[in-house]
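Listing S7. Sequence submitted for prediction.
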Amino acid sequence: MDSPSTTRATIYLDSELHRALRFKAALTRRSISELVTEAVRESLREDEEDLRSAALRAEEPTISYEAFLGKLKADGTL
């Protein structure tokens, strides 16, 4: 598993989570390291998508709370 592109890290998991992770690793015939790496990548990918969306919306014009509330009332949302 250790290759030039990996770094060893120590993490602490609660016992039940570790037990579930070991069970899933056995069922899927994958290592715990592979499962944790995949989960971390997915979490970071979600963050990246959120940040990209926020960056795109940063260019939108701002609107006051009162104006937004008035718009919601005018279109029948509130």
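Caption to Listing S7: primary sequence and predicted structure tokens for the chain studied. The CA atoms of residues 44 and 50 lie 10 Å apart. The chain has a mean pLDDT of 91.
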